[in-house]
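Aim 2, interim progress. The first record below pairs a target sequence with its structure tokens.
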Amino acid sequence: MNKTVVCFGETLWDVLPTGRQPGGAPFNVAVQLHQLSQPVQLISRVGSDDLGRELLAFLAARGLSTAYVQRSHTHLTGVVKANVDNRNEVTYKIVQPVAWDYIQFEDALHQLVAGAAGLVFGSLAARTETTRATLHRLLPAARFKVFDVNLRPPHYTREEVEYLLGQSNLVKVNEHELAEILGWYGRGPAPDEASLAWLAQHFHLQAVCVTLGAEGAVLWHEGQRYRSPGLVVAVQDTIGSGDAFLAALLTSWLAGEAPAQCLRFACAAGALVATYQGATPVLTRAQVAKFMAEQPA
């Protein structure tokens, strides 16, 4: 079976006080999947400008394919201005419109998704009509749909988030996003059994994963709730930690590992990335395993 995971959506530059770094949640997840030895393809779009060429060069240098990263002659490569004054809670100003807002549907994309093990996508890529329409056309072809919710005001609507939840098999959400979504239905914000069971049942989800920052994460799967505590680390910044978490979770998940093991591996990967500056430090399975082994019992 084809084990490729397809990541769909934004590819951009995070502009930090220390300089700019490659970013975008699907981009970061794709890089970390590749580094964890999971076959991956990225569907995105960059401008035919220096920033776009540099992103393509970065992917190539890390050994990732750029075959499905489209080039735009009419829109510039995406840029996000990140505020890292609070290392544990980064805020973003996301420029619009940019190249990844105009990902064009192609038959080759449909064939790629149909043959892949899974499709990873978020709400940010659905903020504009062109990319949203492309995503909507690809979703029915996907075997396993992973929604990395990633709510960034004002770049989403309740209607679109509900639609994507209804299309998904596995949903990854942080505690603040979960509270907002549950609030739409008059439900309490806590990631307890009742809330997660309701969300899974309401949207026919196979699994719901809630990240809790330094407190670890919770996973709801087939009627059971799993909890993994946070790992104590010296945080440099949290940019890309959630993306590394998701990449590690999927790598373990697709390998058929037990849910508790998947969650622990994901928490370790996310914590390890937080000890570096930037979203995509080099990350290998061996590094994560060593880090896990060093943790107190």
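The second target in this work package is listed in the same format:
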Amino acid sequence: MKAIRKIIIIYSAFMLAALGVMILLWKNMKEVTNSVASYNEEELALYKKIWNNLNANLEQGRDMMLKYVIIFWAVLLVIGIIFILVIHHFMIKPVKEMENFASEIAKGNLDVPLPIHRNNMFGSFTESFDIMREELKVSKEREFEAEKAKREMVAELSHDLKTPVATIRATCEVLDLKYKKEIEKTEELLKEKDNKEIEDRLTNLKGNLEKIGYIYKKADTINELVGSVFRATLDDMQEIKIEPKENDSLIIESYFASLKEYGNIILDNHIPECLLLFDKLRMEQVIDNIVGNSYKYAGTDIHVSFAETEMLSTAKGSKNIFIKITIRDSGPGVPEEDLPLLTEKFHRGGNAGDKQGYGLGMYLANHYMEKQGGGMEYYNDHGFVVEILVRKV
């Protein structure tokens, strides 16, 4: 309505200006007709009677013309305003309604109906737009129900996984106590009698105890991950929380030392002792995913080296020093056409073959490093190389 008011006000002002010009012209014409040229007395006497009659007729004509001009102006003003209102009703108003409707749909408000007027310019397809809105609403409701069902399924699976994980942890605790007692007895026997067989038995017991500890640790990690997924599902979070904190850098080196199931992992040097900013659980996942991929696809020794970088600029514009961790294998590497897509969700390279996987390992590693304020790069160099940057405190 504001727009139509403005148009009417502008049109009325224009018409008033036109009326003013007409009146001004009429006054000028009156002055011209009233002006009498210079004549001598004989000529004035001769034309006096004729002039008076002519002047009376002109005055009457001017007044009549002014009356007709005002009537014509008033009619034109009314017709113009009616025309503007008709244009607004049949053209501008439907466009405005369509604009408001599209704006509400863009905001996700699918409950707003579209007024249907069959006598306006959009009358032939406003009904189709409203049907589209209804279909979108139904589709959104289906999507919401599917998402809800998925969240409930993940929550149920996460809850169900806690029971076997708890059983594994309890079994490991029992076996841990049992083997510790066996080791104590065997060590006492070894003190009493130095025997090769007893010494070998002690070595085997310690090896089994170490494996039990490793299983317990992995079960604990699985329990934490399941707990994170469970909490994220219940809270309807878009992603799992990542909370970087100040931690000792030696923790990262210990992660590599614990990955004995991935073959021969060689530490070319030791990590500089300092405080680093990372989430311990997520960093362990990152290292496990990268080393696990190299073991799965390369099957060679894995070399790990550490170095401190110079001051580097982050994505947010701040400058920090990082610890660069380089993980390198000696395998065939990743096909060049797959390199740009390696951190895409669910992407698996052409060399995956029949090896199990979901295409999430490198995606999660890259995502977790970015969320921790670090970064990750990867390339082929006589094998596959991954460099991860951990921010120094």
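The two ends are 61 Å apart (CA to CA). This observation will shape the mutagenesis plan for the next reporting period.
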